[in-house]
Amino acid sequence: PGRGCRPGAAGGGRQPAGRRCQGPRFVIKGGLAGAAVYVAYDQGLLGSSTQGAEALKKAQAALPPAIQEWTSYIGWELPPTPKFDFSPSDSWNKGVQTVMSALSVAPTRASEYTVEGWKYVKDLIK
């Protein structure tokens, strides 16, 4: 263990088992998270919807041969992969439309709920 990873190294007391070696874990997890963000950026997943759709097409083309290679290496036999007709840009656009629709009616709904709330409070006071 490193300098901060032995019992009683910092503070003179014995550290709980779950608190040992926090520094290296943090560095490893941070490195993995940074690598994941870099790969996502490098593959175009953090770009426009068009770049994301292209990255998805690349993944759909590359994954089945890679999975087949690994399963033949291990000796497993998997059923054929299903084909999906999925458009990320259409899904994204539908999500944006739903959010914008909700935001556009929010002031009206807030006003209605405020009126109902005041009416309820007045009825309680009577």
User: Total number of β-strand segments?
Assistant: 0
Q: Which shape, going by the Cα principal axes?
A: elongated
Structural domain count = 2
Percent of residues in beta strands? under 5%
Judged by helices, strands and strand pairing, the structural class is: mainly alpha
How large, in whole angstroms, is the Cα Rg?
27 Å
Subunit structure: Component of the mitochondrial contact site and cristae organizing system (MICOS) complex.
Membrane topology: Single-pass membrane protein
Region (Disordered): 1-20
Main location: mitochondrion
Molecular structure report:
The chain is an all-alpha fold and 126 residues long. It has helices spanning 22-42, 49-74, 88-125. The chain has 2 domains: 20-84, no CATH class; 87-126. The protein is built from 3 helices and no strands. The chain is elongated, with a radius of gyration of 27 Å. The mean pLDDT is 77. Keywords: Membrane, Mitochondrion, Mitochondrion inner membrane, Transmembrane, Transmembrane helix. Component of the mitochondrial contact site and cristae organizing system (MICOS) complex.
